[in-house]
Task: structure prediction
Amino acid sequence: MEYTDISLMYPTQEALMKNARGEDKAKISNEVLDELGLNSIIDLKNSRLCDFFTLDPEVIAYRQRVFADTVENPELCELLVKLNPILSDIAEIRRLSSDDTQNEGYLYSITEVELYISCMELLAKGLYPMRDKLKSEAFVALANRVKELTESDYYIDLNKRLKELTSRVREVKSVTIGVNLDSRLRPESAGVLSVNNEYFKSGELIQKILRLDFKNDEYTCIASLIPFTKNQSENEQSALSYAFSNALNKVFKSSMHSWKKVVQSYVLENADFLIKLMPEIEFVVKGTELINKLKKSGNPICYPTIYPMEEKRFSVKGIYNPVIASEISEKMVENDFEFDENGTFYVLTGPNRGGKSVITCAVGLTFALAGLGLCVPCVSAEISPADGIFVHFPTGAEDTVDKGRLGEECARLDAIFDEVTEYSLVLLDESLSSTGSFEGAYIAAEVLSGFSMCKCRGIFSTHLHELSSMIDGINERCVKDGGAKIDTLVAGMEGGERSFKILRAKPDGKSYARDIARKYGISLENILEKISKK
Result:
């Protein structure tokens, strides 16, 4: 890896540019991540999670080694946490110094060098000493880069010159201002007379005026020029600050002119690679925090084995929903799940609150986390990345004003077919529940036939039990025309209680209804008993 190409996310500049062009980036929108709940457990402030997805197995493996380093070496993650605010300050300094309304460029340049050296010292003391424990190419390359920079003659000289210059600038505590007055005592012109290394004193105003003694102490104020920043508008404060900054820059301009050139030619060049790492550092820190949180909760996690997208592999053991796991203290119920030639798309039925939505989201989250290079919520996992994740979950009433609920659902389903490919993942939760069961099952059968012909992977979680009885007919019609097989899953019940186990079986809607009815006392026997007591 070339030093100029250091990235925590991409092994080469070519891989980074390929992703930037969208050539290996999955179609996973920020809205989809909101629906799945991933944005809530990896909350990024300076970037979007959807920008980090990749379909390249080599890139994913590269990231897995990065996260292995931060998880196995907690001090490394702590170092990144300390580093990012300093980098944010450098970025802000650059923004301010490029603002034409500010005249503080020379002073800003000193601050930027100070921040840059702080970064280098932090990395030199924290990163390089642990180099032999690191396994990822990214952190090893970064450690080597830091060593080269901090041991260079130029860096040593920069540090020396910074100390000399800052000692001069930091000694400035006040300025003496001279104001020329006209014959009517009105200000005519003003300027800085001297730069002082002491603060001026407020003095006792009344006594000074009564004595008219203005010469006993050149650092004692006899009258405030203006209530500085008090009751001033933002424009007035900016104007005053501008005037002082402009004057000070003129004082320091001659001695700092060459210094700013040093910043532009050296610091800008050597700090740029760190600034570019800011979004990646934040992502690595947040991802590591999620991994540690899931580990601490006692739930299993693993790095998935990644296969080429074309293989369409997805076989996981002990899958669970990490969003729910991060919110509760109890251990999650684990399930095994697989897409195969006999079940590329599943219809999932079962009792209300039996875990259908939970497992549907868990599958989507596992695909997403794998595509980010993170651990997945499973005991073991073999995954081919999906080139897109599309969801069709219930929406609020505000989205149905023009079309009505059913019309809105159909429009969103139609939009999915515009983008889905055979390598995509589609998740539908209680879709078409806004109409009667007969109409809903008919439309759902048409939708499932479409997904069969697309050959995409997916789950249709539904209360439309009639739909399960139509699967054989859908398969018979579609498979002969080149479509993929659809299978059924059920959310299990044990002794009338929800087990939250997802079984690959034919559903029995009546048995679920009977168990739930008995649990809540809504059986004919119980009803007749209540009636007889009246």
In short: The chain has 19 helices and twelve strands.
